[in-house]
Specification:
- The protein is α/β, with parallel strands linked by helices.
- The protein is built from 10 helices and 14 strands.
- It has helices at 8-12, 18-34, 60-71, 83-96, 104-111, 113-122, 214-227, 257-263, 268-277, 294-297; strands at residues 2-7, 38-43, 53-56, 76-80, 98-99, 137-141, 151-153, 163-167, 172-180, 184-196, 200-207, 232-240, 244-250, 290-293.
- The strands form 3 sheets. The protein has a 6-stranded antiparallel β-sheet, sandwiched between helices. A 5-stranded parallel β-sheet has the order 3-2-1-4-5, with helices on both faces. A 3-stranded antiparallel β-sheet has the order 7-6-8, with no helix packed on it.
- Strand 12 (232-240) and strand 13 (244-250) form a beta hairpin.
- The relative contact order is 0.16.
């Protein structure tokens, strides 16, 4: 099968996230390749160590055009891009081939943090509150990904259309990686290296994280993914306090996939395909652990 893996940072050369982008692209393309599939990916130029055929791409506009052009030549495809543009790009994939990621409508719900929180709350899933009286608050862009633009406030201020403000929830910063198809396949619970100061910054992770509350965390993550209609590889960010609070839903492969692919006893590419076409196993085995930082990912260019 011919598979497109379109990763935004690699295709456009975004220096802020190029290291993470190359690492995710390499993980997916090489896994699909091991499974016997032919991979095509948009890039400014071919990247050493990545299995597949690089297709020239050089700008934001060029990325969308490349996604459409390459998708037409492939049997299936998946896009990794900033959440605010992922829905439109996923719709392009859906119009031209089989989408291996979350449906575009699900992506749209996840990308809007206000809508996402409302859906989760209405489904009985714990999310940080918005009421007055908290010791501190978190302000973050309504649309966006990772910890970009996220800051801690000592007092609540009036939100606007571009930002949301919630109470600061203390606890362990975790993420849950899972694959959703007709059934949900739990993969790993991971520890996120989060620096909390005036700003909140993501610095890497440990995969897996041996929390005694694994069943609770993964159960909440699976419920969140179901409430939002997620499919394919999904990453759910959770703060583990007195409850498991869902703070973000990533309807796409995340940086944790680097570790997940190394510690599970199945090919991650095969599992993503099985999520779309049927036949997910009930569980995966985990062997060893993997730790990384944003700095150690480096640039593949």
């Amino acid at each position: 099968m011919k598979i497109m893996v379109a990763e935004y940072a690699v295709a456009t050369g975004d220096p802020a996230i190029i290291g993470e982008g190359c690492a995710m692209l390499s993980t997916l393309t090489n896994s699909f390749g091991v499974c016997g599939h032919q991979v095509r990916y948009p890039a400014m130029r071919p990247i050493a160590g990545i299995c597949g055929d690089a297709i020239r791409c050089g700008s934001d506009c060029g990325f969308a055009e490349s996604v459409e052009r390459i998708a037409r030549t492939c049997d299936a495809g998946i896009v990794i891009a900033p959440d605010e543009m992922l829905s439109d790009l996923t719709a392009i994939v859906e119009e031209n081939t089989v989408n291996l990621g979350c449906p575009s409508e699900s992506v749209r719900k996840c990308a809007d943090k206000l809508i996402c929180s409302r859906i989760l709350s209405e489904s009985g899933i714990a999310v940080p509150g918005t009421s007055e009286g908290a010791d501190s608050y978190v302000i973050k862009p309504r649309w966006g990904c990772a910890s970009e633009g996220v800051a801690v406030l000592s007092e609540k201020r009036q939100p606007d259309d571009d930002f949301i403000i919630t109470e600061f929830v203390a606890g362990e910063h975790l993420s849950a990686s899972l694959i959703c198809g007709e059934t949900v396949l739990p993969l790993t619970v991971n520890m996120q290296k989060i620096a909390v100061g005036a700003a909140i910054r993501y610095g890497g992770g440990v995969v897996p994280y041996p929390t005694p509350r694994w069943d609770e965390v993964m159960g909440v993550a699976a419920s969140a993914a179901d409430a939002l209609g997620c499919r394919g590889y999904v990453g759910i960010d959770i703060v583990l306090g007195d409850r498991s609070f869902v703070v973000d839903v990533n309807p796409r492969p995340t940086t944790s996939i680097l570790g997940v692919a190394r510690v599970i006893n199945r090919e991650i590419g095969d599992l993503i395909i099985r999520a779309r076409f049927g036949g997910l196993p009930e569980s995966v085995g985990i062997i060893g652990s993997f730790e990384f930082t944003k700095e150690t990912l480096g640039s593949r260019f």
